[in-house]
Amino acid sequence: MRIVIAEDDPLLREGLALLLRAEAMDVAATAGTPDEALDAVEAFAPDVAILDVRMPPTHTDEGIRAAVEARRRHPGLAVLVLSAYVEQSFATRLLTGGVGGLGYLLKERVGRVEEFLDALHRVASGGTAIDPEVVAQLFTRSRQDTRLERLSPREHDVLALMAEGLGNSAIAERLVVTDGAVHKHIRSIFAKLDLSPADRTDRRVAAVLHYLEDARGRSR
């Protein structure tokens, strides 16, 4: 797996590079600015770009804008964005640009090496990985949504794990239920959220985006 890392904190940047190289991954380049990150993506054609949300010069949303631009130039590029805080609006902007190969994690997750590597591999394989804390906060802010109220407590649990990017088998293992039970819950969730099988979008991601958009609207 070839990786480009963009992080303006040199300690975290080099720490990430050392961690990934210790896992036999190819860290092709590291960057400290969005422009350097985009140049590195062009030069090395990585499988995954890991970018910090807040980068120079304004330390606001440069990382997100660089991620969106990198995906525009290279639609097959997997992107994993890191943030120090929960910022649902940034997660929404990133995920709206595509339905696969995308992740949004809090930086503290990097210290939980197995979780971080699992998320990285999931994103590299074309899946999604959203930090559990982001999922928890968006659910808290979205409880007045009438579609959310249609879900049973167990369906809430299943959708929360779907939002993290877990597949059916991983959800079944986490909830100690059968794969068949998870499949049944997911079909019910899609029905209650008015997500039709005829839709061209990935319904799992569409369910997550619905909550992210709702949370962003309530935070304004």
TrEMBL record:
Domain HTH luxR-type, first and last residues per copy: 144-215
Q: Which residues form a coiled coil?
A: none
Q: Does the keyword Transcription regulation apply?
A: yes
Q: Where is the Response regulatory domain?
A: 2-122
Q: This protein is called what?
A: Response regulator transcription factor
Record PROSITE patterns: HTH_LUXR_2, RESPONSE_REGULATORY
Which keywords are on file for this protein? DNA-binding, Phosphoprotein, Transcription, Transcription regulation
List residues modified as 4-aspartylphosphate.
52
- What SMART domains does the entry give? HTH_LUXR (SM00421), REC (SM00448)
Highest taxon of source? Bacteria
Q: Which PANTHER family match?
A: TRANSCRIPTIONAL REGULATORY PROTEIN NARL-RELATED, TWO-COMPONENT RESPONSE REGULATOR
Q: Does the keyword DNA-binding apply?
A: yes
Q: Which Pfam families match?
A: GerE, Response_reg
